[in-house]
Design a protein that fits this description.
Number of helices: 6
Low-confidence stretches: 85-91
Strand content: under 5%
Order of helices and strands: HHHHHH
Mean pLDDT: 81
């Protein structure tokens, strides 16, 4: 599973509330600090700005840091969230 430019655009096009919920889900799946995730998710415009500068390879590298199983869980969350909008950005 590898990110493409299109996949990053799909994530960036999500409405703020959907992206915020997805971030919190990902934090739980990855075993991350939910307080830090909530703090990050409180400023979606800044997060989108940061994400817009990521290359697909950089996004893939970040996901890889979570480990194989957690990365797969994160991909699943992203796919399911995008699917709620009738979109399937990859797969």
């Amino acid at each position: 599973m590898a990110f493409s430019e299109n996949e990053l655009r799909q994530i960036l096009s999500m409405d703020d509330e959907s992206l915020r919920r997805m971030i919190l889900q990902i934090a739980r799946a990855a075993g991350g600090d939910e307080g830090k995730a909530a703090s990050l998710a409180s400023d979606i415009p800044s997060l989108k700005s940061l994400m817009s500068r990521l290359t697909p390879a950089e996004a893939e590298e970040l996901l890889g840091r979570a480990g194989k199983n957690k990365s797969e869980d994160i991909y699943r969350i992203i796919n399911n969230t995008a699917g709620n909008n009738g979109q399937r950005p990859w797969g």
